[in-house]
Each structure stands twice: as C-alpha cells, then as structure tokens.
Write a structure and sequence with these properties.
The chain is an all-alpha fold. The protein is built from five helices and no strands.
Length: 134
C-alpha cells in the first residue's frame, strides 16, 4: 500500500499486526530522477539527452525547500511532449518544461505530510499495542 494522503487511510488498517512494515519514500534523488526521465521518454526521442543534467535540474528545487515527486517529473515530461516544436523531444524542450512546471511538493505540503504521518504512526502503534494487551 502507498499513499500521499495518510489521513485517508482507513483506521482499521492502522495496525502493526496487519501491516508490519513501513517504508518512507521521499522525493527521488538526482540519479532516480534521471531514470524517471529516461523511462518516460522512451519512444518520444532519439535525441542525445543528458538525463543526469535533467535529474540535477529538478533536484535544485530542494534548495528552496521544494521538490518534484516521481509524478512531478512525469508532469514535466508531459509538458515537454505538449509543447515540443519538433517531432521529437529535445533536451532544451525538457529544460524549458522544468522552468514551466513548478515542483509539486512545496515546503507547506511536505510539512503537512510529515504532520499527517506522525499522527498516523501514533495511531498505528497505539492500535497494535492495545490489541496486544487484550
């Protein structure tokens, strides 16, 4: 199970006995962002594209306490596809799309997510402790 909206998880599922493992997945790092770009551009370009550069460009948002999620990177690719001037997407099309498409994770949304996670984890551990004592 995955979610970007932890408060929407049914409370009946918030039990360590039912879901024994939790893994936090943050925004992609530069290398993973490059792989996401490459994957979503298959069949849309045969241009020589520096995927490492693209990964580094999206990671620069973190300096402003913002980030691109995997879906945010897909949004960049989709914007490049919609706005390309030629038959194939170029590196410049992608760089322009990064400038156009704002990061989908802002400092405010990230802090709200962390607050939600902390509250959910309290319920998660409380539920498993209470059931273990019955």
């Amino acid at each position: 199970m995955t979610t970007n909206h932890p408060r929407k998880i049914d409370s009946a599922l918030l039990n360590a006995d039912l879901i024994p493992y939790q893994i936090y997945l943050g925004p992609p790092n530069s290398a993973d962002a490059a792989k996401i770009f490459k994957y979503h551009l298959k069949g849309f370009t045969e241009q020589d594209i520096d995927y490492t550069l693209l990964g580094q460009k999206v990671i620069q948002a973190m300096a402003k306490n913002e980030a691109y999620s995997a879906q945010g990177i897909v949004n960049v690719v989709d914007s490049a596809k919609e706005n390309t001037s030629g038959a194939q997407i170029t590196e410049q099309d992608l760089l322009s799309a990064i400038e156009r498409v704002s990061p989908d994770i802002t400092q405010k949304t990230y802090e709200a997510f962390l607050d939600d996670i902390n509250e959910i984890l309290e319920t998660y551990y409380k539920n498993s402790t209470n059931e273990g004592n019955q």
